[in-house]
Amino acid sequence: MPRVPPSAMEESLSVSDAIITPRENHRDYQIGDSVWSPCARLGYRRSTIVSVDHHTSSYFVSSADQDPGNAGQYSVQRDAVRPLYDCPSRTFEDNCEMVHLDDANILENLKKRYAKDLIYTYTANVILAVNPYKTMHGLYSNEQMLRYRGRNPGNLPAHPYAITDLAYRQLQRDRKNQALVISGESGAGKTETAKITMNYLTSMSRTDAALGSQIQERILSANPILESFGNASTVMNANSSRFGKYNEMYFNPVGSLVGAGIKTFLLESSRVVFQQSGEKNYHVFYQLLAGMDDNTIDRLLLDPYGTYKLLHSSGTKPAAEGSAEAQKFASQFNQLKEALSCFANQDLQNDIWDVVGALVHLGEVDFVEMEATQGDASSAAGASASGCPGSAQAAQPLVEVPVEGMDALYNATELLGLEGEHLERILKFKETCVRHAGGRLSVFKCPRTLTQARQTLQSIIKVLYKRLFDSLVKKMNDATSHSGMSSNEHSYNSIGTLDIYGFERLETNSFEQLCINLANERLQQFFVEEVLGAEQRMYEEERLSVLPMELPDSTPVVTGIRKVMEILNEHSLRASRNLGTTKEDKDMKFCEHLHRELVQGSNRQTGPIMALKLRANRNGTGLGQHDGFQICHYAGPVSYSTKGWIDKNNDSLVPELEQVLAQGKKSVVRDMADQQGMTAASGERSNSLSSLYLDNLDKLLNTLKQCSVHYIRCFNPNQTRSPGAFDSKYVLDQVIQCGTVQLVKIMHHGYPHRCFLGDLRERLKRMLPPEFERYSHRDFLHAVLIAWNMDESQWTLGTRRLFLKAGQLRVLEDLKDLGGQASQEVIKSICRRFAKKKVKAAAHAIEIVCYLQKSMKKWRRDRWLTKLHNSVRVAARLQRWLCKARATLYGFEPTEEKATVDRGILLKQLVDRRPLKPLDVTPPSKLFITFNSCENHGYWEDSKEALRAHQRKASESVLCFDGQRVKCIKLNGKAFVQQPDATEDGISFGRALEDLREVSLVDSTDSQWGQAVPLHAVTPDPQKRIVCMCQHSAKSDVFATCNNQNQVMVWKWRGTASSGTSQEATTMQAAFQYMDARPIIQMCFLHQEPENANGYMMILLARNPEKSWLEMHFISVYHDNCFRLECIQHLFLDSDQDEGSMEHFKNGFYITHFGMSHSGSVLVVAGNLFLHLFAVSQDAAGQAHRVVPIEKEIVDALVSKDQQCPNGGTVVSVCSLPVDSHNDIIVFGMSSGELRAVCLVEENGAVSIIDKRSGRMVRGSHTKGIPIRSVVAMHEPQGETSFAAGNHISQLIMCKQPVSPYRFISIGDDGRMLTWGLDQHRSWQPTEVRSALGHSLVAARSSCLVPSVLVMFDNDKQRIVAMDRKNPDVSSKCCSLLS
After folding, report:
1. ∠ Cα 458 462 465 (to 5°)
2. Which member of 202, 729, 1345, 1352 lies 3.0 to 4.6 Å from 43 by CB, making a disulfide possible if both were Cys?
3. Are residues 746 and 549 in contact, defined by beta-carbon separation less than 8 angstroms?
4. Buried (b) or exposed (e) across 810-843, using 16+ Cβ within 10 A?
5. Is the pLDDT of residue 571 over 70?
6. 3-class SS letters over 577-619
7. SS3 270
8. Which of 24-33, 311-320, 453-462, 1351-1360 has the lowest mean pLDDT?
9. Integer Cα distance of 101 and 112 in angstroms
10. Which residues are registered as beta bridge partners of 126?
11. What's this model's pTM, rounded to 2 decimal places?
12. How far apart are CA 1158 and CA 1297, in angstroms?
């Protein structure tokens, strides 16, 4: 089939009922071409070229089809004409899909989509939203939320949910803050769109139901408050936001919503005292009058249907009783009160209503000039000329408050809780303070003129309202910012929603419009830079070369506005200090100064700051030359009137009023006082509102720069707020003002449409024969574009995407719809072209390989030469150092023979470090608890009742090792189950601790070995003593002891019966004499067993008296009194293994803990100023044969951080808790009084530390500097809080003590005892704090029989204490070891 010629392409497009004009060169149109021409009424209208004049820069067009009323030919500039592509049956989800990407075609697409109730449209990654002014049923339902969850933008129709979900997923993936910038003019739907996005985030985040409901309630409750106090009715919008706000929603690392915050910008405080014609004050005033109950209205002394100057001076009428407007205000007031109840109690709400009512009364206050005598007039003239009279006593008021105004003034002061006389004096007089050279302060009281008094009153009303608004925002932030958040706030990320006023260009533009337009100017520049940056990054990733884009720079405009505000601040400061005369117009002086500085020379009509084009007419109306200025913004020139700017820029009160506020009777009024303003010694001061706004704007931009920003542009379809009406010219102005045209220029300059190669190949695979299937995606699409003669300037191929100019994808789709294929000649040409391309690529590859081989050969040669050169240099330097060392050691350079001998001696001296010696300290006593097998009553039934019976009739043995001997005492669980001295079935419930005995375990050759004898019945041999003792962690009835003769004995505890005679309490398992040259310091059992399972495996910690390290001896002990040494491993107390770090142990060392973790996979060695963790590794047979250090840096950092604390650096006590069968949490009680924990996990045979779950626990729980002597694991089954059933009895009988992974107890040296538990965030928190029964409890253990019982050893009183944690005061039992 032959190739489709261009005529066929045009024919295919006509089949779609489309009108298209040439797009290669839009300015070279022909007669009859359809275009868009500019129209003052419609923005753009469809026209036809009727005449082309090649000698001028214009066309003659006719618009009879679309605009018959204005039919006829007229001339338009060539640059103003836009190409037309119209397909009446289709709209575009993304404007980038259109053939022509410009403002006219975007406007037409928006119009057609709006007619179909499709109010959202993409332009690349930006959403354009048109306000429907009606309810869109089903568009914001829960089903829609679920539909957009996890879907990328573009897969579904445009919607705020798509942008919001993308931001939420990027937040979780990149851990970077996100921001949604929602812009548009008043009435465009910014606030509603912000509500939609926040509602989606609160609904879709992974938040706990209770916490999420609380946070969501507070976030949603903030909106009615902000709308009532910050929104007002304007000519453009009945609910216009008159401030900017940035809502932040905080999420934890798992994506749960944990809090929120609000930042506000530039509240239009001037609206409180002045509104333009047809506009209203803030909603809260009207809502208060319509919705407040009669009692409160009477207390506020207001009339619900009265007319007030503050509310109705712009021509609006009060809401009639029972009218729809009054009902609406009443309903909104009820919503406001309900929302306020989340942040303020009833008393605070009443105070807020008092302040609002007081402002209404202040608005009724007015002044009249007093009739002055000739003397008074001359005095007043002198005062006006000098700024104040010469004497405070001579000052007479120039204005007076009439009777009706006086009633309103005193009503206001009563509601505010202020003194009416003070406020009246402030309104009539101005106090100026002058400090003399000697330090004396003089106060001059100056009467205010009528204008000054009115300005002062308006300033008071504005500032009080603004401070009330700020205080409400602060209370909402205090209630929502940290809800569910811990103190570690940097671990949270946020999604911010910027709802800011759009660009404003009114008939009269004042200071507020300048601030608003400055914010939009900077946000637009930020938007352009962000889009450009994203485009450039995309091209770099795809390895494309695109020429730099020339974009508009708003820096001159922003700099010019800053200079305007600097001049404004200077004049505001002069006005606050009365440096000018009262007759001069301060606003005009400011404008004249601005013209001198910024409007001059060639910039008068071309620079960013220009002179006004309007002139005053003969009637005196309109703006004169020095009444304002003009700024050329990105959205077009705007004229500003500078009238009243000096007063608007001053956001402060006189110091006297600040003091009056501070002395108010109500807390909400006192909080409004500015402490800095009260201390002003020079009278009234200037607090620049423009400087504050610039600072807030800089902070906002800095916040956005730290975020990934997403954009939603909102448009108002008409000025009458009517549903279904689309005013094209009005929307076009907004499209230009919001910067969409600049975005379009950026996209048009580059490649606005991007398609993934694989997806596009699947759609176009039939356009080439089957033999092209073997081609890669990139080559296949390259062949398609060549075969159909696509202009190479309209597309480019990246590594993963095909980039197309606007409209080119539509051309491809239309060609695909024809169903044809390229001709055989074209196919052969393409194959030859690709073959040449591959040959050329192969030649390049061969050339590169040859070059690389030569380069690698040269690189290797140069590398070896460099190494040889460095080695020679090192050898020469070592030789020089060796000669200097010989001269230092021997006084002369010795001969080679003597040097050889002395070098050996010197080497030995350097290697043999100072030997370690143990500290001469008494080791702390140790407690061990095991089951008393002599009183096993055979309760094997697994039930709670059987456990109770077992606890009443069974007992445990408490073994106490004091560093030399072992004593035992019986612990009766029955004493804690039932009251003492009670009986049941003839069984006495007597003492908790009884039958104190000494166990003979020192010498295995002693005839009394293993017997439990009464105290003092055996005479100890002072030459023999027990040096260490340990208990098997998996078999609690198996113990091992070692005496000072290095004799090791392994034995099993049987228990004692209630009799006064000696009895056999132990059974010998093994006994052997270990090597005398290695004194044993500590020992512990391993969980593993020997190969024949007839014994135990142990680690003996021994000392080599001649070395500076310790030795760990791994042995297997068998029941036939023999043992086998498996291996020996050195233990360096200093982890760096150097001489300098040994300074810590120059006075000796001692071991505080040597034992296994609960899982048996980790060995813990701790002592003075050191801590080591080792992973126990096994051989192929499963036998432990060596230990491997675990992450020395983290463990050393744990000790080094504790050394920075007072008395810190030593691990005093250790407790191991189970996470599961292979993982542990090890808690260390430090000498500094702090608890530190390490979480260990075993994966693939290797043990590592989870850094996020390790470190210091809650600071300040224990007394600082007091050691934590005991950290005790709780022996209670998982899931139970008291006595457990299940397999608990079986565990007791089998001597396997169950350890709870959810709680433990820590006891300080001062007797402070804390119970720790896991909270909902899986972090340890102290759940109970109490004082134990002594101040020197050096050891403690938890009973396994009665888990609530804690057994402790009081070192001072030499006694054992048994305390029931459920009832510590009543059930505590003590037994002295001396009795």
Report:
1. 140
2. 729
3. yes
4. bbbeebbeeebbbeeebbeebeeebeeeeeeeee
5. yes
6. CCCCCCCCCHHHHHHHHHHHHHCCHHHHCCCCEECCCCCCCCC
7. helix
8. 24-33
9. 16
10. 123
11. 0.55
12. 11
- Model pLDDT, residue 1274: 86
Cα gap 491→259, rounded to integer Å: 13
Among 299, 483, 392, CA closest to 683: 392
What's the token pair of residue 98? Answer: 């259109």
Residue 160 is classified by DSSP as H
Buried b (16+ CB within 10 A) or exposed e, 758-781: eebbeebeebbeeebeebebbbbb
Q: How far is CA 698 from the centre of its chain?
A: 20
Question: CA neighbours within 13 Å on the CB side: how many for 751?
Answer: 24
Is pLDDT at 2 greater than 70 in this prediction?
A: no
935, 970, 1041: which is closest to 1292 by C-alpha? Answer: 935
Q: What is the DSSP string of 873-897?
A: HHHHHHHHHHHHHHHHHHSS---HH
User: CA-CA distance, 1008 to 798, in Å (whole number)?
Assistant: 90
Cα(first)–Cα(last) distance of the chain, in Å?
115
Is the Cβ–Cβ distance between 643 and 568 less than 8 Å? no
| Lowest model confidence (mean pLDDT) among 93-102, 334-343, 588-597 | 93-102
User: Residue 956's Cα: distance from chain center in Å?
Assistant: 52
Please give the order of strands across the beta sheet that includes 955-961.
Answer: 926-931, 955-961, 966-972, 993-999, 1011-1014, 1063-1064
pLDDT tens figures, 883-903: 888 776 655 455 544 444 444
Distance CA 486, CA 259 (A): 10
Q: What would the two tokens of residue 973 be?
A: 């669980």
CB neighbour list of residue 1170: distance below 8 Å, 6 or more residues apart: 1133, 1134, 1135, 1144, 1149, 1199
Decide if 1 contacts 820 (C-beta within 8 A).
Answer: yes
DSSP 94: B
CB 521 within 8 Å of CB 561: yes
For the chain, counts of helices (H) and of strands (E): 35, 59
| The predicted structure's pLDDT at residue 961 | 92
Residue by residue, DSSP assigns 1337-1364 as: EEEEEE-SSSTTEEEEEETTTTEEEEEE
- Give yes or no for a contact between 383 and 410, defined as CB atoms under 8 angstroms apart: no
CA distance 1022 to 1000: 14
Q: Using the predicted structure, report yes or no on whether residue 315 has a pLDDT greater than 50.
A: yes
DSSP 208-234: -HHHHHHHHHHHHHHHHHHHHHHEE--
Distances 1250 to 475, 1347, 1374 between C-alpha atoms, Å: 39, 30, 41
